[in-house]
Design brief:
3 domains, five-stranded mixed sheet, five-stranded antiparallel sheet, 615 residues, alpha+beta
Length: 615
């Protein structure tokens, strides 16, 4: 129901003229159905007088803080967009539906006139639904001048638009320099205790949804991860070696304020875009793994512009993992990011390219015959479902900007001209020759790493083919694959069916009354399991007994062998019972003992006794 904040921010960067707005008291504009108002009851003094009695009230509108309020309010907002689409235009309805995060709306238009038209029609659509759009902001002074002063954001109401620079504004948590139309950071690091809790609080306080400063934050995440690895408690003091690393990293964070990122994905008056490409890079190391995505635009004059879209930077898992597997995991993150951008960007007719600096990963994706271990096979399958194998290319490590996401970088190194923000240099060339990029073949080491991940399975012996006989070789590999599949299925499905399995084939007799059983207890050793006698059975409709009533034996007795306490009666399923002696066997044993006793004594007057008693 709610739009994702990251997707809204990505669309906010598409065009030159940016607009932000807010819905006044959004939750309070939507009524709660009378049948559900009892869920919003509260106690308060009658007539707001603390001297009077406390009475019960019910809210008639949605309230701030309730989990249901954002979803219900956005449902009503989108319903208003659907109702007004035919009257006010599809672009207005799309703005209301797609570019609002709860009550904050942000969008971008190609020019000022379209922005003014969009604002006026959006205000009329919302007013018809009983909503008021206000707190408008824009990087265009022409747009701001067309908005009534009382409907602008508070920072712009007393500003002379012709003389004073436009102030900074927050857009969904990100600082936006309206005057220069760039995103920036204002670092206000609080003094917190040097503990695991305080460090995690500092790292989490830097809000960076698009991962502009992800490589810088990687070092802080690594320190917190190291504390977790060493088993440090939340409030334990930090070791001296980690304390030094943390203080150095924390002091360098102020340099992030020097970073400026263009809000718009293309420069002003770039012209008509003839070609659009999205370039995805991924990389991994023993420190971390990550990816970054760039949009590459070419206009009619052959000029190229490349902008950072979004990235991910994550620490490597604590469980040891080979570098090829980490590289494959990073490639999967890149493929998933491609799917997310296709869904969120609303850009049509663009091409996608995926770049990795690992020939092993390219070997994984190009192999469609051999089978890999589960970890590798699952990720290859997901990547192939999200992307085309022919869209993956090799790039050298020095030209791979995602190397910053996998190894981290200092805050002073992260500038607008760094490879992480600007992208690799070859993307800025008008003629991007992909054939030259992939010319480097796999080395023997790469081939060995690929073979290590392949499953060992029986296969037919192949002959040596001529180099020109490629078609026959492919056909023979296909036959080899089918033969291998046949033998695997024959071994797992047919051969195992030849083995006779007696379990579950013959029906066991039901547990009966007076059977002696042993009670299986998961929390006690076998020597402490209790004896019990079956008092009653509970047959199911099919006649099978699956639950019985038991009387437990007593370990302690008095001098006469009698129970000290009352017998314990309980119900248990038969899966927790082990039959030691059935009642029929006990009776036969009793008769045999009587016959043997009579034969030895010649007497038949004694009363028969049970072989095992629980009384």
């Amino acid at each position: 129901m709610l739009n994702g904040s990251i997707g809204v921010l990505c669309r906010f960067r598409k065009d030159e003229v940016a607009i932000t707005a807010d819905i006044e008291g959004m939750f309070h504009q939507f009524y709660v159905a009378e049948a559900y108002r009892d869920f919003l009851r509260f106690l308060w003094w009658k007539n707001d007088d603390v001297e009077q009695e406390i009475v019960e009230y019910r809210m008639k509108v949605h309230i701030f803080g309730a989990t249901s309020s954002p979803g219900c309010a956005n449902f009503g907002l989108k319903r208003a967009a659907d109702d007004g689409e035919s009257e006010f235009g599809s672009d207005v309805a799309k703005f209301i539906r797609r570019d609002f995060y709860v009550d904050d709306g942000i969008t971008a238009t190609p020019d000022s006139q379209s922005a003014i038209s969009l604002i006026n029609r959006s205000r009329r659509l919302c007013a018809k639904a009983g909503l008021r759009l206000h707190k408008f902001t824009s990087n265009s002074r022409e747009v701001l001048a067309s908005i009534p002063v009382e409907d602008r954001t508070s920072d712009l109401q007393a500003v002379d638009l012709n003389k004073v620079q436009l102030p900074l504004q927050r857009v969904l948590g990100i600082m936006w320099n309206i005057e220069n139309d760039v995103f920036c950071f204002r670092m206000q690091i609080k003094d917190v205790p040097l503990t695991r809790r305080g460090m995690l609080s500092t790292v989490s306080s830097i809000y960076d949804p698009l991962c502009f400063v992800g490589p810088v934050l990687l070092e802080g995440k690594r320190i917190v991860q190291q504390l977790c690895k060493e088993g440090a408690d939340w409030d334990d003091p930090v070791p001296n070696d980690l304390r030094y690393r943390w203080e150095r990293w924390r002091n360098e964070l102020q340099d992030i304020e020097n970073l400026k990122i263009n809000r718009c994905l293309h420069p002003v008056q770039f012209g008509t875009v003839q070609r659009k490409e999205i370039q995805h890079f991924s990389d991994a190391s023993n420190v971390g793994y990550g990816q970054c995505s760039y949009i590459r635009l070419l206009n009619g004059e052959g000029k190229v512009w490349c902008s950072f879209l979004i990235g991910k930077s994550r620490v490597a898992p604590l469980k040891p993992m080979t570098i090829p597997r980490l590289e494959l995991t990073a490639a999967l993150v890149s493929a998933r990011m491609s799917k997310y951008l296709r869904w969120q960007l609303d850009i049509a007719n663009y091409e996608e390219y995926f770049w990795v600096d690992s020939k092993v990963v390219l070997g994984y994706l190009a192999n469609d015959v051999r089978r890999f271990h589960v970890f590798v096979a699952n990720r290859i399958q997901q990547i192939n479902e999200l992307t085309e194998p022919k869209g993956w290319y090799y790039v050298s490590s020095k030209d791979n900007p995602s190397d910053c996401a996998s190894r981290g970088m200092k805050a002073c190194q992260l500038t607008s001209e760094s490879s992480w923000i600007r992208g690799p240099e070859f993307l800025w060339k008008s003629d991007l020759n992909l054939n030259d990029v992939n010319a480097t073949p796999c080395t023997e080491t790469d081939k060995q790493l690929i073979n290590d991940e392949m499953k060992r399975s029986c296969s037919l012996q192949t002959r040596v083919f001529q180099r020109e006989d490629l078609y026959v070789r492919r056909r023979w590999r296909r036959v080899q694959y089918l033969a291998n599949e046949f033998w695997v299925r024959w071994r797992k499905e047919f051969v195992q069916s030849l083995q006779k399995r007696n379990k579950w084939q013959r029906r066991m007799p039901n547990i009966a009354v007076d059977d002696i059983v042993l009670l299986d207890d998961d929390h006690a050793p076998r020597s402490k399991w209790r004896l019990a006698r079956v008092l009653d059975t509970y047959p199911c409709p099919d006649g099978i007994v699956r639950k019985v009533q038991l009387m437990l034996s007593e370990r302690e007795r008095d001098d006469k062998g009698k129970r000290i306490s009352a017998p314990s009666i309980l119900d248990r399923p038969i899966c927790k019972l082990i039959v030691l002696l059935r009642a029929s066997e006990e009776k036969a044993l009793q008769i045999a003992e009587d016959v043997a006793r009579d034969s030895s004594t010649g007497s038949h007057d004694d009363e028969p006794r049970s072989a095992l008693t629980l009384d």
